[in-house]
Design goal:
about 40% helix; Four Helix Bundle (Hemerythrin (Met), subunit A); globular; Rossmann fold; about 375 residues; alpha/beta; seven-stranded mixed β-sheet; four-stranded mixed β-sheet; 15 strands; 2 domains; homodimer
């Protein structure tokens, strides 16, 4: 496994700081790497209140399902810290959690982490006690996320052979989690084992997380990466240049259908056409048994400005409309396996997912 | 059929000018609408020598397979006009044609039109005679192109039902031809007949011809258009929002495999998955019987700068490579029908294409 200090050389921070650049908790302040400005600027924004954190999540300064969840968990600490004690303390706290919950609709980790924090809050009455427990809980989530990353990396790398060329979409890396990522955790581990030859990264319109974030992360780790237009991926698979497609997920429904960044579904179709394994890597916090299948997942629609940029010049004629969904849903039938921190679930379906999550026991691996 | 003066209100030019904005022949000068700057600027560039025309083709100031072919045909006139008469006239002319031929490798129309002009040149010895014959030939091609557009529009619109919603990719419109386009000729005709409800246009990374050119063309004609990221098209088809996918082509091999703008192939895969008809619209000059199948079509690789733009800020980390093919190949088996100026060729294959092109007779329609 590539060491953290290699992937993120600026992580050798003192022990009080969370050792990752994606986010750092600094006594009442959640400091976020501003991912909107990468790779040209490595700057941070400080969130000391709920409004600034909600804005950071909405505008993708912090993004990636696991990272959004953990940022929101720290948001719960901020919610308690910025609420005056007194009669209306509970009510005001809950109102702030509701604001965070309304920032983005698709990634289930946001709701999952906030649910845990709501429970922690109820179990620890009193402002000081709540703050302490919420902070410990958020830090726990961060530690678990890192450990889950490492596990997913190991399980995923076991599926790759020496000399593998891998295609990924969007950014499911350290920047999308508090750890080493999901899809990219597999890539880091495979690189460390010496079995990875190179990575192709879809640029991932409209916000170009593949070009700006994945290529940046992998380059920093010394892993060879080529960026391609999303629409060129099918050709690359057609040419036989890729051994596996590996992506993350924002929500996995009870039947194994997986929502992920827009463009994942056509990639899965092309992988199936060419007999290339299609792996979804996601921690258990991404699984949502309360949503029976993919059609029940709310897909966030984003604004016109994303298709008019980057650049100063407006690209679209004013009278043209836009259709800009942030995510799509890949049916479970197109997924070779889901890799989570507990192992590898081949040919996922409702039964195998229920077994995995309902009984919390070891499964196919 | 929508009238030219409606689609291009500035086309009611005097009879000596070619009545389309894509290109105008003005006594020794080929004036090209600079498509790199659309839609924010409607400016023209003047090509009076081969180098400026070659540069315009290479950098996509003029683009689209039929338009490139016709621009090159006028280029042959410029080649003769800018060559001194004398002993080395023929040799110098041919060298200039070779420059034009080397500008872009995939669209067969370029080679097709230049082959015709070479033949015209050989059949009309003497500089003045050659110039006159080459100009007449180029004007013929332009007239044929417009007539072919109209025919393809009619044949294609016959395949659509009332209330149709159509998805297209890149720009196969008036801007890509000297006429009304190929795929968009069908859309204009369907709109005129009152059977088209709306158009979805893939933005078409990296050069965004869908957002910048197709949306601009359709908006000018008053046709409702929504732009979407290329990677969102599969989701749109999955939602059942689209009745037909209609695209152009840069070269159709002898077995019906069709090269077109990168991103066409995954669109065809998604259309097949969802049982949506996938139509390729192309004039006969796009058919290339000398290339047996799609794998024989040379695919142009474009530069890194296209993935680093638009915008001033560089998007890619310096150590990341790029893979940026301009085209992909859709196997004939994914094509519901090819629509050309002679009719509609359902389930195209080597036999039906040979019948169509070899015997020059009416076929399935």
């Amino acid at each position: 496994m590539v060491s953290l200090s290699c992937v993120f050389p600026f992580c050798r921070a003192n022990a009080d700081m969370i050792p990752l650049p994606t986010m750092q908790w600094m006594e009442g302040n959640l400091r976020l790497l501003d991912q909107r400005k990468l790779p040209s600027e490595e700057t941070y924004i400080d969130c000391r209140d709920i409004d600034s954190l909600a804005e950071a999540i909405r505008t993708l300064a912090v993004r990636g399902a696991p990272a959004i969840g953990i940022a929101a968990a720290f948001g719960a600490v901020i919610a308690a810290l910025t609420t005056d004690p007194g009669e209306k303390f509970n009510e005001a706290f809950v109102a702030k959690i509701d604001i965070l919950e309304g920032t983005r609709p698709t990634a289930v980790n946001l709701f999952h982490c906030l649910d845990i924090q709501r429970r922690i809050f109820r179990m620890n009455p009193g402002r000081d006690s709540a703050i302490e427990a919420l902070l410990e809980s958020a830090r726990d989530m961060m530690r678990s996320d890192l450990e889950a990353s490492r596990q997913m990396g190991r399980f995923g790398a076991d599926l790759l052979e020496k000399g593998s060329v891998v295609l990924t979409h969007c950014n499911a890396g350290g920047l999308a989690t508090a750890g080493l990522g999901t899809a990219l955790a597999v890539i880091y581990e495979a690189w460390e084992r010496g079995i990875l030859e190179k990575v192709y990264a879809d640029e991932t319109r409209p916000l170009l997380q593949g070009a700006r974030l994945t290529a940046w992360e992998l380059s920093r780790a010394g892993i060879p990466v080529d960026v391609l237009p999303d629409s060129a991926a099918a050709s690359l698979l057609q040419k036989g240049e890729v051994d596996a497609v590996i992506v993350g997920s924002d929500r996995i429904a009870a039947n194994g259908d997986a929502a992920n960044k827009i463009g994942t579904y056509p990639l899965a179709l092309a992988a199936k056409e060419h007999g290339i394994p299609f792996y979804v890597v996601a921690p258990l916090s991404t699984f949502d048994l309360s949503t029976p299948c993919g059609s029940g997942i709310e897909i966030e629609q984003r604004g016109r400005n994303e298709l008019n940029s980057p650049g100063e010049r407006k690209l679209l004629p004013e009278s043209a409309g836009v259709w800009n969904p942030a995510f799509d849903v890949t049916p479970a039938t197109l997924i070779t396996a889901i890799i989570c921190e507990k192992g590898v679930l081949f040919s996922p379906d409702a039964d195998s997912l229920r077994l995995l999550l309902g009984k919390d026991r070891q499964f196919k691996k």
